[in-house]
Amino acid sequence: MPVRRRGTSASRLARAAPGETKVGGVEVPPTDVPPLASVESGDMISTDSLTRRYGDFTAVDDVTFTAEPGRVTGFLGPNGAGKSTTMRVITGLTRPTSGRATVLGQPFRALTNPGRHVGVLLDASAQHNGRTGREALTLVALTMGLPEARVDHMLDVVGLSRKESRRRVGHYSLGMRQRLGIAGALLGDPEVLILDEPANGLDPAGIRWMRDLLGGFAGEGGTVFLSSHLLNEIERIADDIIVIGGGRIVAQGTREELLRPSGTTVGSTDDARLAEALRGQGLDVQPRPEGGLRVDAEPVQVGATAAEHGIPLTDLRPAENRGLEEMFLTLTADDNREKAAA
Amino acid sequence: MSALTTSQGRTSTVAAQSPRSTHDGEGTLGPIRGVAFGRLFRVELRKQYDTVASRGLLAGIAVVTLVVFIIMLFTNGGDFSWMNYLTASVTPLSILLPIVGIMAATSEWSQHTAMTTFALEPRRGRVIWAKLLSSLLLGAVLFAVAVVASAVVHQVAISARGVDGDWSLTWWTVAGGAGLLLLNMLTGTAFGFALLNTPGAIVAFFAVPLGVSGAHALIPAWSTFFSWVDLNETSAPLLAGQSLTGGQWARLAVTVGIWVALPMLVGVWRVLRREIK
Fold first, then answer.
1. Dist CA A177 CA A224 (whole Å)
2. From the centroid of its chain, how far is CA B211?
3. What residues have CB less than 8 Å from B185, skipping those under 6 apart?
């Protein structure tokens, strides 16, 4: 499978346009598009001005983004931001009020045997409590027309023992349900994974396991689209990040773009003189309350200036970027205020 | 290979078991074909007996039927015809088995498995058909079991209790009994789809016909009206062992329209339209 990186967040925004079903410039009815046609066009998951209203409440508001092969795309937002609704619309479980969503270039409902193309886990606790874990997977395998041996293979992949698989799901911990859900999503050997809060309920080792698993999946050319309400979780796993708040996308780009440090923290034996020297070069310099300076420049430029003036440095490093965190905290705080008011 | 043991004592071998290990070279999973209706049908049939609740219910039906047979063997010297035994076993079946049909329709929503089911087959109408037809098949299979079981019990009565064998079985006993059972399965499934809630649908399935029959008994002045809406009354002739009259057919058709077709229409509309959470 060809793995290509395309565009930056800005160009991706602009590129998402109607006519995704055009193959070679010819309009093709959706059902006639071969499932893999869109691999050529690069967008494994694509939404275009997706909007979903519930009465006066707009849960998803004009959401446009793409998720690309070979990448883990993280969907970050506080609870109630519209992540799950967006994912349900993408998987055809909820109708959009307006706009459209495609997976592999087609509406989800038009996919042939969707489980073989797209692994979906939207709610790990959405399992029949009275069925065994193994039986739940067997039903999925039967629906897709897969052999029983595939169930055993996936149980091994997600680390559920045979004994555990014969217990009823009602007795599973949330972590075990997540593993079972992941097994179900991977069962059809899909190219795309859509996972809503897959790390919920996993212990730290489980989260690391999940990260390795999904990273490996993307590394082999698969597309992973996952949501989380935890910034540090998304930071560690996602290559591309889409931030949603109040139903609207507030930021999107690669992890590097969004987390790039935009300054330098520096300490020296004479901060006052260093600050003066840096300001002399027209740089913005702020003293840090805990000592040292924060400079709006690359570390190399700060170091060179210090050397020029013969000021010994005690500390020089890229500033930690608080931008995404600040934005995320603001979104979360807004959300909390709404809840407090209600 | 990175092996790590979680605090739950679980070893995960990530590198050794790649999730996409079967993907290369067309894979061992074979070419991707559409979801055949036969597969959906088998899956929906399997869902009706693979949960604790449905297995418990089926075991309960078996126990109740067995108790009925035993009581009959020790009543009146066990002197009942094959037809008597059959009718006696169809009654508990037609009362209890529709709960399996109800759960087939509702459990996807009560247990939230609809998210998985409809992500694997987004064409919801096909899933509805699969549920409907598989619950009818389950009813037909269990009716056949009842026919065989009642024959065995009748033979036991002949051998052990020394009664005279009466193997006469009118075509109408069989057709009427099977018809009543399948009609009840349909009613249960229709109520299930209409309400999409297991306890609610079970209560409605038993309470609504009972309420109508009760009102029928309480308001004799409206007897003519109720004779057209009381499903218990209009379906009773099915077990009488003889052909229905034209008037009986008409009344049965009208009540089936009200209590089966109408909830089914509402239910199908709801399932097709409903947002799945």
1. 19
2. 22
3. B97, B98, B101, B135, B136, B138, B139
Q: Judge contact between A82 and A47, C-beta under 8 A.
A: no
Chain A residues whose beta carbon lies within 8 Å of the beta carbon of residue B12: 158-159, 209
Angstrom distance (rounded) from CA B54 to CA B50 = 7
Complex ipTM, two decimals?
A: 0.87
Each residue of A315-324: pLDDT tens digit? 998 877 666 7
For chain B, the domains span 36-194+217-232+242-251
Does this model's pTM top 0.80? yes
Nearest to A189 among B22, B33, B43 (CB): B22
Minimal Cα distance from B117: which residue of A? Answer: A140
Distance CA B177, CA B276 (A): 37
The answer, yes or no, to whether residue B5 has pLDDT greater than 50, is no
Cβ pair A131:B4 closer than 8 A? no
Q: Which residues of chain A does B104 touch, with a Cβ-Cβ cutoff of 8 Å?
A: none
Domains of chain A: 9-251 (3.40.50.300), 264-318 (3.30.70)
Contacts of B40 in chain A (CB under 8 A): 143
Nearest residue of B to residue A188 by CA position? B29
Judged by CB atoms closer than 8 Å, whether chains meet at A128 and B107 is answered as yes
Provide the pairing of β-strand A45-54 with A98-103: antiparallel
DSSP A227: E
Distance CA A337, CA B226 (A): 57
